[in-house]
Amino acid sequence: MAAEMALVKPISKFSTIATTTKPRFSYPKATCTSLSTRFCTIKMSATSEQAAAATAQKPSKKSNKTAIKETLLTPRFYTTDFDEMETLFNTEINKKLNQAEFEALLQEFKTDYNQTHFVRNKEFKEAADKMQGPLRQIFVEFLERSCTAEFSGFLLYKELGRRLKKTNPVVAEIFSLMSRDEARHAGFLNKGLSDFNYALDLGFLTKARKYTFFKPKFIFYATYLSEKIGYWRYITIYRHLKANPEFQCYPIFKYFENWCQDENRHGDFFSALMKAQPQFLNDWKAKLWARFFCLSVYVTMYLNDCQRTAFYEGIGLDTKEFDMHVIIEVSLWLSLLVCFLQKFMKISVLRINCQYVELDSTLCTSQVSQQSSL
Ligand SMILES: [Fe+2]
Ligand SMILES: [Fe+2]
Fold it and tell me: What is the pLDDT of residues 107-136, one digit of tens each?
């Protein structure tokens, strides 16, 4: 996963490491007195605010581990009903599963287009060392949020790959390969943090974070949206910085073009999964839930980004324009999915009350008609 959304994907609020009375980008002096000279391992507390405070009062002697409390927009890790998942992907029970399509997707994932893509160079450390003041702290927050988000996807996909192995080996292997991608993304971001003398304690995160339960239906909605939003966020930043290289202050963005293709493939896989589960899309409750998820994810993304306009302005983006662009593009993708389902499965789902989508629905309906008549 890639998108930075509290509802769907975990993001920690870095600015609240110590106390809400601290300045937005301050760090606890007791544990991390100099950003440029000391190395901090960031622990994210899964317990209460008091526990986080207690941890902050008793820093580990072995390392400068810093507790981060959770807030309303704090990221979460997700778990689901794996027994229900096994039933959904049982080819004996669900005859709508298009195994040929999943086989084709599996070959795509096995190709592993980005196997050699995530190779660092000396530019990273040099760029990080040049960054000072608020921009440096903003970047640390960005890397930490993104790393946690990617790691959340890794954990969920890895478990799904493990649990579906017997029921549907093809789908299980795709999940495992997607977890490979997400682990690669999280690791790359964590190495970025090391340029700033930080590192996320991912082992601690795995054990200590709270896991939020979502039924499979909601996991499908959330992860599909998350992957597609992640794709559009990454590619938008990449294209913007390519056109405006004066804002290219850290080389990680140069990797976004290929990186976002991983997220796009993940989204396409969830699109195929949803096509195989029309019962999650074709009644009035499903329509309402789908709308709710769209709205929640968009609002959460917007609120998160508005809290961090300094980051987007730092790379030359207008936060609101950036978010609107992402929302519109993702909505167009959704409308294409809707068109497909309406055309080929005779169901009407996921319509969003957005003039852009309405316009595009007309367009893509005619495109689907043309394609189907060929
Ligand atoms: Fe990812
Ligand atoms: Fe992903």
Answer: 999 999 999 999 999 999 999 999 988 889
What spacing in Å lies between the alpha carbon of 146 and ligand 1's midpoint? 9
**Cα distance between residue 63 and residue 45, in whole Å:** 16
Distance 230 CA to ligand 2 centre (A): 7
- What pLDDT, in 10s, does the model give residues 336-373? 666 665 565 544 333 333 333 333 333 333 333 333 33
pTM: 0.76
* CA-based nearest residue to 256, from 229, 225, 227, 231: 231
Q: How far does residue 11's CA lie from ligand 2's centre (Å)?
A: 15
**What are the residue ranges spanned by the domains of the chain?**
77-344
User: Which is nearest to 302 in space by CA: 320, 325, 329?
Assistant: 320
What CATH number matches the domain at 77-344, 1.10.3470, 1.10.3210, 1.20.120, 1.10.620?
1.10.620
Q: How far is the CA of 36 from the centre of ligand 1 (A)?
A: 28
Q: Which residue matches tokens 């007309």?
A: 362
